[in-house]
């Protein structure tokens, strides 16, 4: 069996840096308005967006920017100081879902990104009963 070449190997390749940045800017604009999660974030989200962009670049298969700048992501450990229950995880995902739907990403790509982030959101829950 001969494998066919893959035009774009990673999610990051298919999203691209510009579209990822736009997605995150829209996402965090939604986060800032969401009463269930806005209190978990600083008022000025510019550094948060930069860090998330660095993380998602590597998470989606691009250069390991987050690791190079900040070290290992250690997502759960870095987020343990924030109460994250199902309500917060669902709110985070709802903001991402809305940002994805408003983006110019192709529907199949939107679904793939959402699925990857949904697994991560569930992993971040540290208040199981909340």
List keywords for this structure.
130 residues; mainly alpha; Globin-like; 63% helix
CATH fold-level label: Globin-like
Q: Summarize the amount of helix as a percent range.
A: 55-70%
Work out the strand percent: under 5%
**What is the string of helix and strand elements?**
HHHHHHH
**pLDDT < 50 stretches:** none
What separation lies between the terminal Cα atoms?
50 Å
Structure annotation, total helices: 7
Secondary structure elements and pairings:
Elements: H1 11-15, H2 17-33, H3 46-59, H4 65-70, H5 75-79, H6 86-102, H7 107-124
Walkthrough of the structure:
It comes from Deinobacterium chartae. This is Hemoglobin. Belongs to the truncated hemoglobin family. Group II subfamily. GO terms for molecular function: heme binding; metal ion binding; oxygen binding; oxygen carrier activity. Keywords: Heme, Iron, Metal-binding, Transport. The chain is mainly α and 130 residues long. It has one domain: Globin-like, CATH 1.10.490. 63% of the residues lie in helices and 0% in strands. It has 7 helices and no strands. It has helices at residues 11-15, 17-33, 46-59, 65-70, 75-79, 86-102, 107-124. Helix 2 (17-33) crosses helix 3 (46-59), helix 2 crosses helix 6 and helix 6 runs antiparallel to helix 7 (107-124). It is globular, with a radius of gyration of 15 Å.
């Amino acid at each position: 069996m001969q494998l066919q070449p893959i035009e774009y190997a990673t999610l990051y390749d298919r999203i691209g840096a510009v579209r990822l940045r736009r997605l995150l800017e829209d996402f965090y604009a939604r986060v800032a308005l969401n009463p269930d999660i806005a209190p978990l974030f600083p008022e000025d989200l510019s550094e948060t967006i930069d860090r998330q962009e660095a993380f998602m670049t590597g998470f989606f298969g691009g250069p390991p920017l987050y690791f190079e700048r900040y070290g290992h992501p250690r997502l759960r450990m870095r987020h343990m100081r924030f109460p994250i229950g199902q309500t917060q995880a669902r709110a985070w995902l709802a903001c991402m879902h809305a940002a994805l739907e408003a983006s110019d990403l192709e529907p199949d790509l939107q679904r793939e990104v959402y699925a990857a982030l949904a697994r991560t959101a569930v992993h971040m829950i540290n208040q199981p009963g909340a």
